[in-house]
């Protein structure tokens, strides 16, 4: 369903472009998370420009990740591991190098724990679930 109001559509389209740009920058800067920005850009484009949404979905690197999220709410094991390692490094860096109070450190730990819990409780894409099931069956034999 596309937005009816032209100013609203342009605002959502602009937000999509900003998120796409931030996601691209996140490929090179570990401080910016790529995946959430790309998923948000895909959502914005789906509401404002079906052509841009289709182009993003057809993009060979990012397209499968977006499709898995939109169709199944799933995150690949590789993306989960990458997110965990990156977050562990960055949050550890913040906790040990920056001189911040105990309350802020506790908040950082709480945020990291909540985000990682969300990521790890998302299902795997269907092809990875099938591989896990086949591996379990092979181990039982």
Verbal overview:
It is a single chain. By secondary structure, the protein is mainly α. It has two domains: 1-73; 74-125. 79% of the residues lie in helices and 0% in strands. It has helices spanning 6-26, 34-48, 50-58, 63-72, 77-97, 102-121, 126-140.
Order of helices and strands: HHHHHHH
Distance between the termini: 49 Å
Structurally, how many domains make up the residues? 2
- Total DSSP helices: 7
Sheet with the most strands, sense and barrel status:
none
What number is the mean pLDDT?
85
Structural class by helix and strand composition: mainly alpha
Helix amount: over 70%
Q: What proportion of the residues form beta strands (DSSP E)?
A: under 5%
The beta-strand count equals: 0
Q: Given the C-alpha coordinates, what overall shape results?
A: flat
Task: List the uncertain runs.
Answer: none
Task: Please state the CA-atom Rg, rounded to the nearest Å.
Answer: 18 Å
Comma- or semicolon-separated keywords:
141 residues; 7 helices; 79% helix
Show the helix and strand layout:
Layout: H1 6-26, H2 34-48, H3 50-58, H4 63-72, H5 77-97, H6 102-121, H7 126-140
Helix pairs in contact: 1-2, 2-3, 5-6
Brief write-up:
Helices cover 79% and strands 0% of the residues.
């Amino acid at each position: 369903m596309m937005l009816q109001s032209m100013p609203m559509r342009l605002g959502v389209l602009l937000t999509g472009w900003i998120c796409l740009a931030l996601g691209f920058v996140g490929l090179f800067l570990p401080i910016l998370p790529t995946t959430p920005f790309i998923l948000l850009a895909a959502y914005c484009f789906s509401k404002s420009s079906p052509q841009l949404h289709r182009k993003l979905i057809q993009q060979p690197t990012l397209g499968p990740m977006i499709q898995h999220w939109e169709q199944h709410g799933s995150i690949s094991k590789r993306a989960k591991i990458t997110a965990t390692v990156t977050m562990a490094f960055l949050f550890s860096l913040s906790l040990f190098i920056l001189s911040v109070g105990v309350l802020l450190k506790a908040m950082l730990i709480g945020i990291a724990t909540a985000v990682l819990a969300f990521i790890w409780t998302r299902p795997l894409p269907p092809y990875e679930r099938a591989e896990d099931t086949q591996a379990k069956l092979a181990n039982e034999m």
